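Exam prep: given the inputs below (a chain plus S-adenosylmethionine), describe the expected output before reading on.
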Amino acid sequence: MNQLAQFDAWSAGQNYEQYMGRWSRQIAAKFLPWLAPPESARWLEIGCGTGAFTAHILGKCAPRSVLAIDASKDFVAYAQAQVIDQRVRFETADAAKLPAPDASVDVVASALVLNFVPDRIAALAEMKRVLRPEGLLGFYVWDYPGGGMGFIDAFWKAAMEIDPQAAELDEARRFPFCTRDGLAKLCREAGIAATVEPIGIETVFSDFEAFWQPFTLGAGPAPGYCMKLPEDQRADLKAKLARKLGAKGPIRLVGRAWAAKAIVNG
Ligand SMILES: C[S@@+](CC[C@H](N)C(=O)[O-])C[C@H]1O[C@@H](n2cnc3c(N)ncnc32)[C@H](O)[C@@H]1O
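Solution:
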């Protein structure tokens, strides 16, 4: 495995929900009206995780069917147990090899995933392959380089102060393409003329403990790193963050994603 991806821990569904799923749901609720998908569409969702975005598609977009895939068997099992709907089918699969025939879906969508996919051009080519002519493609990623995922940004900045090696694990450094221009360029390279816009939420933590606790659950890159730290360093990191953010709440931080959409012709 790529060393920088060593803490990309995608297995404990409940823990992921506390760390990211709850924010993912909020951004999904803003993204889908912006995407403006047709009703009765056949959807393919890539990287469904615990089903946060899937549930919104089912609840808000009146799809005919949703095939939701993820590389993590554990997350697929979790999503299957949580999202009960006759229109959805969950499958373990990779973005590089989608389990769907050519031109067989109307909408391909993906939430907070593309940065974790090693070959993004190949993944976009797969998305184009499965989309019917004039099909709709939409995805979003956090604005890591712009500090747009405030709690993750605060975590890595403090982590670097106690461990300089944390710098290369910081998603801002790992995923420099997660900007307006970066997404537009990536899409252009994949032969897709996309519109890219920011979508924002506010992440609010009632107090510092509420901010810190999800990092101790090990689900996701920063929590995975946090729980691999020796106990004394973890305590040091916690104290640093508490000093920066204030021990009392509420702690309000920005949550900004870059969203891309395009009508695609195979
Ligand atoms: C940050 S989570 C996003 C999950 C969900 N879409 C959400 O909005 O909460 C990233 C997800 O991408 C999945 N993933 C990473 N690389 C993948 C790949 N190459 N193919 C399919 N899924 C992948 C992970 O297993 C994880 O569930």
